[in-house]
Amino acid sequence: MAETKADMIDLAEEIVRDLELGTVSKWKEKTGGKAVGCMPVWSPRELLHAAGILPVGIVGGGDGIEIIKGDAYFQSYICQIPRSTIEMGLNGNLSPLDGMIFPSICDVIRNLSGMWKMLFPKTPAWYLDMPQSFDEIGVDFFTHELKRLFGEFCRVSGQNPDNDSINRSIAIYNENRSLIEELYQKRRERPWCFPVSEGYLLIRAGYQIDVKEHNKMLRSYIDLAAASDCKAIDNARVVVLGSFCEQPPLNLIRTIEKSGCYVVEDDFTLGARLIKGEISTTGDAIENLARAFIEQSREAAFIYRESEKGGELVEKVKKCNAEGVVCCAPSFCDPALLDQPMMVAAIEKASIPYTSFKYAENTGQFQVIREQAGTFADSIKLWS
Ligand code: SF4
Known about the structure:
With 384 residues, the protein is α/β, with parallel strands linked by helices.
């Protein structure tokens, strides 16, 4: 474990940028366990963990991969993440994985799951059907779906954990979610000591390491950052919205920061904090997990509840004392871009300033974004 904050961030960046999943291979060598890739946004990591499997968050290749073969499988007018994921698969980057989960968040992921099954028929790939009814029918449906998947995980790992083991895994992930929330809370209080670019790397590193290790890493970072000597500057406090699946390049996040914004809330790594609060660790563990998804999940573009969209965003802006919203979505991302007008209507009604731009995970030019985000921050400071 790194001892200084800078070392910890370097280590996290090294893990995030390692497309060959070196930490996953090391974990497998050490434990003899299996590893399963989880596409965005949410997968039942607790069930994988209970089955002795390392859940590995796969969010494409970012700006670290040249797309050569991946383009041949998709039309030009969709997002980037399926191309780089296919490229990684064909390059052998994902060979440490013993399976892949494709949650039903959009047509692109659905089509990618079918393509994956054809290209890699020897590796199990599961389509996770997410609930559409956020009521008791949804709980029943999702419990059934998660039980089906859990059976598959146990078949891959050769283990047969009981209900108590799943509850213990839920408790470990409860701690993880609580630490991540603590990190966000500290950022809201002192964003100059807890920059979004650092917190982002720390949470993303957790996509590739064991959750207990990640909990230790988060604890040390929070303590080190809290004790660090950092000076506040007069930046604008903003909420970033729309980056929950294909991730922006790290330099885009740093660009938003450098342009005069403190990002006090975001949905970059939404999967790790989709469920709010603790999940119950007594009773039927799988039903508890399904119920938590139905009753405790955050507002998200791929979740359709009957309540008006945007309410939670407005509340979030107020809770974070934010001064504006930056809508920052991947190009051609249907869920994010179809949600955006409803989100904008809600924040306009609440007189919250906003700006919007799009990116691709391999965007390399940030000057225009720097100017736009900088102008937005300046206008907030001058006229809000
Ligand atoms: S970026 Fe958007 S459209 Fe593309 S896979 Fe993710 S949710 Fe689907």
